[in-house]
Amino acid sequence: MRTSFFILSIFMCTKFLHAQELFVYSEPASNMPAKSIGIRLTNNLVKQLNDNYEEHLQTEIMWGISKKIMVHAEGFFSNKNKSFRNEGGAIYIKYRFYSADEVHSHFRMAAFARGAYNNSEIHDNAIELNGYNSGYEAGLVATKLLNKLAISSTAYISHATENGHKNKFSWSDGDRNALSYSLSAGRLILPVNYSSYKQTNFTILADILGQSNIKNGRSYLDIAPAIQFIFFSKMRLDIGYRFNIINDLERAGSRSFLLRFEYDFFSVYKL
């Protein structure tokens, strides 16, 4: 009986620790469980210079191929051309290559890459493959979890290509490359004592997100506080607000509200 209780406690603790490092504006080094599939809807309301708001919707299907490999298929929709329509998609893949696990903490590192196609007009100097630019990127992420605190750091290089429908990258060829980076932190607030997977998890988070153009050196730096709820260990709700503190790179919208819903299906097939 004691052995069974101990095993159950470790299992619930593992799910609890995993839930803590689901950051809002960045991906952690950890993956979703193997043989699992998740669906995710992210809606960004982006404030423009004329005080109007653009809606950017990102749909994702996530697949945990193994404990080390995870793939996202992403679709992009927006109303920035006066009608809500699909503007492209992307494939994101992450490979976790290092893991040092302990009972109440772990440290993990992963490499990731994304290839994106977009057919919308290009208005910004900043390069963003999540709904704005066509191109490809690759980088590294490291995540440390210690009890109820998770910290993650990400760095990646992006290259922008021409968008579809003759929407060319209007800046010089040398401005197509950018270095992006982020520092993310999340602190689990509730539950104080974890006893069941049915308990709601409440986490407060904050991200620092930046980008520097490799050729001209212009940069932006944003701060994005957020809150996160996880229900029954499989449903997730994120609410966040992102704003800039440095904005040398031209961006039509540097303030945005985020609302995200995610649902995960665990052990949906056999390998």
What does this structure look like?
The chain is mainly beta and 271 residues long. It is 7% helix and 57% strand. It has one helix spanning 2-20, and strands spanning 36-47, 53-64, 69-78, 85-101, 105-118, 134-146, 149-161, 177-190, 201-213, 219-231, 235-247, 255-265. A hairpin with a 5-residue loop joins β9 (201-213) and β10. It is globular. 32% of the residues are buried. The model is unreliable at 1-19 (pLDDT under 50).
Largest sheet: 12 strands, antiparallel, barrel
Low-confidence segments, given as residue ranges, are 1-19
Strand order of the largest sheet: 1-2-3-4-5-6-7-8-9-10-11-12
State the share of residues found in helices, binned by percent. Answer: under 10%
Distance between the termini: 32 Å
Count of helices? 1
Which descriptors would you attach to this protein?
disordered N terminus; mainly beta; 271 residues; 7% helix
Can you summarize this structure?
With 271 residues, this protein is mainly β. Helix content is 7%, strand content 57%.
Per-chain topology:
Elements: H1 2-20, E1 36-47, E2 53-64, E3 69-78, E4 85-101, E5 105-118, E6 134-146, E7 149-161, E8 177-190, E9 201-213, E10 219-231, E11 235-247, E12 255-265
